[in-house]
Design goal:
Blueprint (H helix, E strand, L loop, with lengths): L10 H16 L4 H7 L4 H12 L18 H20 L4 H18 L8 H12 L3 E5 L6 E5 L31
Antiparallel strand pairs: 1-2
Length: 183
């Protein structure tokens, strides 16, 4: 009897995995994202993270609730990102991580142009895509402006009005720099 052949280690593949992990670390990805999106060992990722970020990675669990994406300002940011992501996914042939990073860079460019503080971290953007893929969140068209916004799956599409067309009473009143302001 012969033992099953072990997969051949490829220096080139490992190099691509390290490059991918480095890019994700620079974008602010947490360890759980790195473990999910690369084939590198946990120990290797820790060393790489410390080398690139100059510190140990953050501890703690990733956000596991969809609620964050549904609050007023966070929903606007999440919807902007998800619309960019969905648009790119239809027009460009990229793997999931490349698509996510391109969409996240475009999201950051848009909020910088609007002089708004980015609320969506890379890890939250990754989690949002996972929630959509799992059928926990979707996009619903606003009945007033026609924009697509992140909503729960069971949202009544005919009666849905987004947070820009119908903001909550205190929305846009923040004096903090980089917050959305309604005029």
């Amino acid at each position: 009897m012969t033992a099953a052949a072990a997969p051949v280690k490829s220096v080139l593949n490992e190099s691509k995995q390290i490059e991918r992990a480095a890019m994700l670390i620079q974008m602010g990805a947490r360890m759980q994202v790195l473990e999910s999106e690369t084939s590198l060992s946990y120990e290797r990722l820790i060393r790489l993270y410390k080398e690139i970020a100059g510190k140990s990675p953050s501890k703690g669990q990733l956000p596991f609730s969809t609620d964050w994406f549904l609050t007023w300002q966070e929903n606007i940011h999440s919807s902007l990102f998800l619309n960019i992501y969905e648009y790119l996914s239809k027009g460009v042939s990229l793997d999931s991580v490349e698509l996510l990073t391109k969409a996240y860079r475009l999201y950051n460019e848009q909020v910088a142009t609007a002089e708004i503080e980015p609320l969506l971290s890379f890890t939250r953007a990754w989690r949002l895509v996972k929630f959509v893929d799992a059928g926990m969140l979707t996009r619903t068209k606003c009945s007033q402006c026609g924009g697509q916004f992140v909503t729960e799956m069971y949202e009544n599409a005919r009666a849905y009005t987004c947070g820009l067309c119908n903001p909550p009473a205190r929305a846009g009143k923040s004096k903090s720099a980089g917050a959305l302001m309604l005029h």
